[in-house]
């Protein structure tokens, strides 16, 4: 007996909540630390430091902390993610602290000290401070903890370097002949390094394979691109454009901006400020609202869960629920294998439905008995998706024709 499966996607609605992942950024012109939703909505001021010159910012979301640099007072601060409990953790022997990043593996903070010509690290409370690299005018940095490397840019000569993360040895120049490097960001999954070239003509955001190849220009005609952060799963770049070059006809000056990591989409101006300098992300997703703000263009007319923004035949809500992993059918026994986003609050009612005639659809909660059983694979603890096998039970498993679909009521 031949069994035929036809997989259909169906979506009616998805609940929408107001809490979302956030962008955190410094604005040196106003002396403020801000955050907003990932589409630029709901701007908040978290901290104000009069007379400051705010620079780099980084997050430790597991502990609910943010860290930022003020080279007006030559101080590195720690605060809660809502801006409360702000306190200095390093306030001595600093000269123009610039970019800062947190390594969740080693639980260490790393920062560039431009005027003291060194890169340092310390515990999140500022203890066990040490210099790992003495190098001329370091300004922005990123880490490859698994590969044991640290990458950084030079303040004025247009080069990017790397060295061993543990002790700063084996220094290499990996990118050169730029104008003025600002921000260095790694996409280790695809093997790319990204940077801003703020004083090029015109100013630009570029990338290149880490181990060398042709440089790609992603966004041109900017004013003064500075701090940058990659949202690799969503394929997005966020950057701060301080606007201090004052170039006529430039795009995104004095704004927080977003674009695609391959440069294919339009530049989005999310928020206009005074002189935004650096940006970092908490890309938490707990609902469809969060996913929409992170993955879809701001102010899109096709951002509802029942819409299909890219015309690929998969509605936004199903793309949110399943990610990029398409379901797979198996015949013996008949089952649907799919990955469901976990740690969210609006997918509990997603269900598998089946039909033998495309007219009557059955599911486990229709009051007429069980039609399928779900089996959960263990999966990796840090994987945001849960692997599920939904196996059709008798007597439906022997139907000559069987149609399956996923529905989010």
Describe the model.
This protein is mainly β and 409 residues long. It folds into two domains: 4-15 and 312-408, Immunoglobulin-like, CATH 2.60.40; 22-283, TolB, C-terminal domain (Neuraminidase, 6 Propeller). 4% of the residues lie in helices and 46% in strands. It has a four-stranded antiparallel beta sheet with strand order 4-3-2-25. The chain has a four-stranded antiparallel beta sheet with strand order 5-6-7-8, with no helix packed on it. Strands 9-10-11-12 form a four-stranded antiparallel beta sheet, with no helix packed on it. Strand 7 and strand 8 form a beta hairpin. The longest helix is centred in the last third of the chain and has 8 residues, at 288-295. The model is unreliable at 12-19 (pLDDT under 50).
User: What is the count of β-strands?
Assistant: 31
Low-confidence stretches: 12-19
Number of structural domains? 2
The geometry reads as: elongated
Global mean pLDDT:
92
CATH class of the largest domain: Mainly Beta
Strand content: over 45%
Ends: how far apart? 33 Å
Q: Could you say what the CATH topology of the largest domain is called?
A: Neuraminidase
Neighbour order of strands in the largest sheet: 4-3-2-25
Keywords:
elongated, 2 helices, 46% strand, single chain, 409 residues, mainly beta, four-stranded antiparallel sheet, Immunoglobulin-like, Neuraminidase, 2 domains
């Amino acid at each position: 007996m031949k069994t035929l499966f036809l997989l259909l996607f169906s979506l009616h609605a998805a609940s929408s909540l107001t809490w979302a992942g956030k962008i955190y950024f410094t604005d040196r012109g106003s002396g403020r630390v801000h955050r907003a939703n990932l589409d630029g909505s709901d701007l908040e001021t978290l901290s104000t430091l009069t007379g400051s010159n705010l620079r780099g910012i980084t997050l430790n979301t597991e502990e609910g902390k943010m860290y930022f640099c003020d080279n007006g007072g030559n101080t590195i601060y720690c605060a809660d993610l809502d801006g409360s409990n702000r306190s200095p953790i390093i306030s001595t022997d600093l000269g123009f602290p610039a970019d800062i990043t947190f390594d969740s593996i080693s639980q260490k903070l790393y920062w560039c000290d431009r005027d003291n010509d060194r890169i340092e690290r310390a515990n999140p409370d500022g203890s066990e401070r040490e210099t790992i690299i003495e190098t001329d005018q370091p300004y922005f940095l990123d880490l490859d903890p698994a590969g044991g490397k640290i990458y950084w840019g030079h303040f004025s000569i247009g080069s990017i370097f790397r060295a061993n993360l543990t002790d700063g040895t084996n220094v290499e120049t990996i990118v050169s002949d730029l104008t003025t490097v600002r921000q260095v960001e790694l996409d280790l999954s695809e093997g790319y390094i990204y940077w801003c070239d703020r004083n090029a003509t015109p100013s630009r955001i570029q990338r290149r394979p880490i181990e060398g190849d042709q440089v790609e220009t992603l966004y041109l005609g900017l004013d003064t691109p500075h701090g940058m952060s990659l949202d690799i799963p969503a394929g997005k770049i966020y950057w701060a454009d301080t606007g201090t070059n004052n170039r006529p006809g430039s795009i995104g000056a004095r704004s927080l901006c977003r674009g695609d990591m391959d440069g294919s989409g339009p530049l989005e101006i999310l928020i206009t400020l005074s002189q935004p300098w650096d940006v970092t992300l908490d890309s938490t997703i707990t609902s469809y609202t969060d996913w929409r703000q992170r993955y879809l263009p701001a102010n899109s007319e096709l951002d509802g869960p029942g819409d299909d923004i890219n015309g690929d035949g998969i509605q936004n809500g199903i793309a949110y629920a399943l990610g990029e992993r398409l379901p797979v059918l198996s015949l013996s026994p008949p089952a649907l294998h799919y990955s469901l986003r976990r740690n969210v609050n609006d997918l509990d009612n997603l269900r598998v439905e089946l039909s033998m005639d495309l007219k009557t659809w059955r599911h486990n909660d229709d009051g007429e008995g069980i039609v399928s059983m779900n089996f959960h694979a263990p999966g990796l603890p840090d994987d945001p998706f849960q692997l599920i096998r939904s196996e059709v039970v008798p007597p439906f498993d022997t139907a000559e024709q069987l149609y399956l679909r996923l529905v989010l009521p």
